[in-house]
Amino acid sequence: MTVASLLAELRSRDIRVWLDGDQLRCNAPTGLLTADLRDALRQRKVDVIEFLRSAASFARQQRAIVPLQPRGSHVPVFAVPGHNGDVFLYRALARQLGGEQPFFGLQLPGLDDDREPLTSVEDLAAYFAGQIRGFRSRGPYALVGYCAGATIAYEIAQQLVQQGEEISFIVMFAGSYPPSYRVLPQLWERYALRLRRARRRLAAMATQSLGDSWKFIVERLRAVAEGRRAAPDPILDLRAQLMRITAAAVAQYKPRAFEGRVCLFFPSGGSLPNESMLSWRGVASQIEEYYGPDRCEGDVMLLEPHVSAIAEVFRLCRDRKVIEPNHATH
User: Fold this and answer.
1) What span, in angstroms and rounded, lies between the C-alpha atoms of 217 and 92?
2) Distance between CA 59 and CA 65 in Å, rounded?
3) What is the pTM of this model?
């Protein structure tokens, strides 16, 4: 009986085995620890202790890996969130890609653990590259990044290639070029986003009755007032701090040349490409361009109702066999 099967047998009988320092402890309901199991546990004691130590070490080492969809035969995807660190941004996409696409989020350090946030893209990429290789020792790997996470995914790919690993492709969802994350461009982007949202709301209100429009305005004003009265939330404060640190790290990053596939995913096929995203052409030799559905914005491209269309385009990208530099797919 292997150590894993022995422990599984013990668990099935509600028998708890754990490490207490260097000692192996066992707690069993009366009569369930049979003589055979007691002898097996005694004979394999050293192996069980080593197994439990290894499992605990693995759990600590792989704390950045969030399995959004762990099964499947395709090259596994490791996805970096935007600078707010929310890996569950990818949950809908992982679900749409189905059970044959392994999909793992990469949790930024400093959000829900006791680590300090890392302040450079190179350090973040080194941390994630170590996590990925500890989780899956050999490639190929696929890297995905959303917004600021696209830059981090790019550097992870660089470091994994330097370590002799194969990168199938990098996907950048609305991933602007690093200088776009400096203070003034970010202020302009937030202003432009609010303006686009206001236009969408006004267009929606134009189709509503006067009563429905007035109700919408009242609800928005009430939500703003309640937000101002809300008590400080330490989790939101921590997330805001992480956003500032990660955006600053990305803004300072200088991309190096990359020879592999870099796939730019623009939110909408009905709008002009983001010029900052196109700046990746200056460092990546195999740029591919992919476009989402009409009237889709970058802040919602991985959410319903747009994510199903984005997932379909992702499959086209993933399954592409013959790569031509600067090929554009619409």
Assistant:
1) 30
2) 10
3) 0.69
